[in-house]
Design goal:
Order of helices and strands: EEEEEEEEEEEEEEEEEEEEHHHH
Radius of gyration: 22 Å
Helix content: under 10%
Distance between the termini: 57 Å
Structural class: mainly beta
Largest sheet: 13 strands, mixed
Shape: globular
Length: about 375
C-alpha cells in the first residue's frame, strides 16, 4: 500500500519484534513505541520521560511525557497511534471498529488540551505503516491464516493488520508538550512470565535524529518484580534505584550479551542520558529468561513472581522442599526469617531483599500464593 501523504507523525504500538524460533511458544499482545514522524524537518524531541509500571494483574501501564521543539511555523499535524493485532491469540477476533482488544484508558493530551481520536483497521508494515484504513468489505480474516492477518477477496494478497488511533494535533512554534497514557496486557510465554517490548529506534526519524534528554523509569507497582533488559543502549550511564527498595547488577547472558538485572519491591529503577541515539529497541522481560538454561535455574525460587503466569521451573513435586516452597511468598515481601536454615537459603537468592519492618501477613497474597502456602 502507498504511504499516506497527509500523515506527518505517528506513534506506534506494535505486537512484538519476535524471532521465528520463538513464534509459537507464547502469546504476544502488543509493544510500545515512539512518537514517529514520516517526514518531519522542523520538529525535534527535546525531552522524553518514559515510565513503564509493572503490576501483578497482567497489565503494563505506560506514561510518556514529551517535550517537542517546533523550529518552524505553527502547524496542524495528523497523528496516529498503531497497535498490532495480537499474535497467537485466537480469542481476539478482528474488531472492525478499530479498537484494540487489549488497550485500555488511552489518552493523549497536548499543551494541556485532551485530543479526540478516531479508530481504524490498517495494514501493518515494518517499513512504516501508512495509516490508510483498509476496506473491510474486501480485506477479511481467513481460517487458513494466522489471527493477525487478513486476505483480500479475489486475490492472493495477505497483510498483517493493526489497530490505529488517529487524531489531529496543533504544534505551536517553539516548545510543545505531549502527555500520553494507556495500559495494555503484557505478553508471556514458555520460560518467561512476562515480556514488555518497547521500540525506541523510530525516534531517529525526528529532525534531530535523537532524544536530546531521555529518561527511562521502570516501576514495580505495589508489588515486587525481578526483570532484565539488554544493556546495549544504556552503556553511557548506570541504572539507579530512585524509589523504594531495589538493586541492580550486570550479568552476561549466553556468554556475550550484557544484561541489566533488576530486583524491585514497591520501587523504581531509572536511567537518564543526554543526546540519546536509540540505535536499537528494548525488551523488558521477567528474569526467568536468565536462568532457563543455567545451573541456578535448578534452584527452587531462583526466580519468583506473584502473577498468574508464573510457574516454578524444574520442580518435581515429589522431591521439592515444601518448607522453602511455602515461604517463597513471605520472602518476596522481605520477611526476615528466624530459622537459620531459611535465612541461609533465601539470602542466596539474588532477588531477596530483607525488610525487618515487614510483619507477616497474607492480606495481599494472590490466589496462587495461597495455594503455595497451603
Amino acid at each position: 500500500m502507498k504511504k499516506s501523504s497527509i500523515l506527518a507523525l505517528s506513534f506506534i504500538i506494535c505486537l512484538l519484534s519476535f524471532s521465528p524460533a520463538r513464534a509459537n511458544d507464547g502469546v504476544y499482545y502488543m509493544n510500545g513505541n515512539q512518537l514517529v514522524p514520516l517526514t518531519e524537518t522542523d520538529i525535534t524531541i527535546a525531552k522524553e520521560v518514559l515510565t513503564i509500571s509493572i503490576g501483578d494483574d497482567g497489565y503494563a501501564r505506560v506514561d510518556v511525557q514529551y517535550e517537542f521543539m517546533n523550529n518552524g511555523k505553527a502547524k496542524e499535524v495528523q497523528m496516529g497511534f498503531e497497535a498490532n493485532a495480537p499474535y497467537n491469540d485466537a480469542t481476539a477476533p478482528l474488531n472492525k471498529e478499530g479498537q484494540h482488544p487489549y488497550i485500555h484508558d488511552f489518552t493523549v493530551t497536548m499543551n494541556g488540551q485532551r485530543l479526540h481520536y478516531t479508530n481504524a483497521v490498517v495494514a501493518f508494515s515494518y517499513d512504516g505503516t501508512d495509516f490508510q484504513p483498509l476496506d473491510l468489505n474486501k480485506w477479511k480474516p481467513d481460517h487458513n491464516l494466522d489471527c493477525h492477518e487478513l486476505k483480500e477477496e479475489g486475490t492472493d494478497s495477505i497483510t498483517p493488520f493493526s489497530y490505529a488511533y488517529l487524531f489531529k494535533a496543533h504544534f505551536e512554534k517553539g516548545l510543545n508538550t505531549v502527555h500520553h497514557t494507556y495500559r495494555y496486557m503484557m505478553s508471556f510465554g514458555i520460560g518467561r512470565t512476562f515480556e514488555i517490548p518497547y521500540w525506541l529506534k523510530p525516534a531517529m526519524r525526528w529532525a534531530n535524529h535523537q532524544i536530546d534528554d531521555f529518561t527511562l523509569r521502570i516501576k514495580a507497582e505495589n508489588t515486587a518484580k525481578h526483570f532484565c533488559l539488554d544493556d546495549s543502549l544504556f552503556q553511557s550511564a548506570p541504572f539507579r534505584v530512585t524509589q523504594g527498595t531495589g538493586k541492580v547488577r550486570y550479568v552476561m547472558r549466553y556468554g556475550d550479551t550484557k544484561t541489566v538485572e533488576v530486583s524491585l519491591r514497591n520501587g523504581t529503577v531509572e536511567w537518564h542520558g543526554r543526546n540519546f541515539v536509540p540505535a536499537c529497541n528494548i525488551n523488558i522481560s521477567s528474569a526467568d529468561v536468565l536462568y532457563e538454561f543455567s545451573s541456578d535455574g535448578m534452584k527452587l525460587g531462583t526466580f519468583y513472581d506473584r502473577s498468574e503466569h508464573f510457574t516454578l521451573m524444574f520442580v518435581d513435586p515429589k522431591t521439592v522442599n515444601k518448607r522453602i516452597l511455602r515461604n517463597l511468598p513471605y520472602a518476596h515481601r522481605g520477611y526476615v526469617f528466624k530459622s537459620k536454615e531459611l535465612q541461609k537459603y533465601f539470602r542466596q537468592l539474588w532477588w531477596y531483599m530483607p525488610d525487618p519492618q515487614w510483619q507477616p501477613s497474607t492480606d495481599d497474597f494472590k490466589a496462587n500464593e495461597m495455594k503455595l502456602i497451603n
